Amino acid sequence: MKDREQPPAAPAPSAELAEAAARLRVLTGQLMRRLRAASEGTDVTLSQASALSRLDREGPATTVALARAERVRPQSMGATLAALEEAGLVERTPHPSDRRQAIMSLTEQGRLRLAEVRREREGWIAGALAERLDEREQAVVVEALGLLARLAEED
Amino acid sequence: MKDREQPPAAPAPSAELAEAAARLRVLTGQLMRRLRAASEGTDVTLSQASALSRLDREGPATTVALARAERVRPQSMGATLAALEEAGLVERTPHPSDRRQAIMSLTEQGRLRLAEVRREREGWIAGALAERLDEREQAVVVEALGLLARLAEED
DNA sequence: TATTGTTATACTCTATAACTATA
DNA sequence: TATAGTTATAGAGTATAACAATA
């Protein structure tokens, strides 16, 4: 499991970075399952919450734009938005000049539900960060999340 | 989105930590989808890779022990292991004294496949960390992943 | 032709419930 | 009774393929 030869030119993902990558993969799976478990009882699913959250942060958008931002297929986002629309959490308004497009936006009810969902779903993460880490460690995690978010959104 | 009053006693997840939690949730979803996309063509699924990886790191284990470690239900782990066994990547040997249990361990073929899978799946993460971050940032991410892994494995 | 969005279908992952076998 | 494991079934999430409407 160790590099035998370190090619001098290539950046050669070091053993440490390879291990970090492995840890990130494991962590991703665990967090996904924890988030899912924290959603129980809520009638807003993970993908729906993510779409709501983005509409709140970035304002109204089309299905395709949301799909690109969330890195899912338009069909998947379409299904997510259809469920949200049926629940009255988002609404669609026709695009003024392009009749193919529909602009999705949060309803007032959607905004309220989003606030609830955030409290329930992200509470334990924020709580764990607050309780189990000291201030320096918190700062490290906050900075790292910013860096990783940048990498994840890049192509 | 801001705390109006900071209750002096309660740790009161600060706005910054709440934002970090939100970012971690979004990041988790995006990484999950990227990892899944990177699995295409591979016939080892994400959960299977995760189980293989743990067997490699921690040695042979029973279904229930693996399920606990990965934070999934024994039934889910059972399905994962059954697929791996059918593919010849793990094998089961009866527990010497308790006939209910079966010890799962990596086969040689499993070890080889795991190495391949790691290269393919974690390569882009390790590559992105190596190429897009400077040394100090890499250190921050490495430390943060250690901290987050600790939180995710705690109850 | 290209883009937006929908419908139909299938697969992965995980869960709950109900069961058998063994301790 | 408690634990290890299996089988059956369901739901969330995503994907590909094929299509309709519009630009």
From TrEMBL, chains A, B:
Q: Does Metal-binding appear among the keywords?
A: no
Entry keywords, A to Z:
DNA-binding, Transcription, Transcription regulation
Looking at the record, the residues that make up the HTH marR-type domain are 17-150
Top-level taxon of origin: Bacteria
Q: What is this protein called?
A: MarR family transcriptional regulator
What high-level taxonomic lineage is stated for the organism?
A: Bacteria, Bacillati, Actinomycetota, Actinomycetes, Kitasatosporales
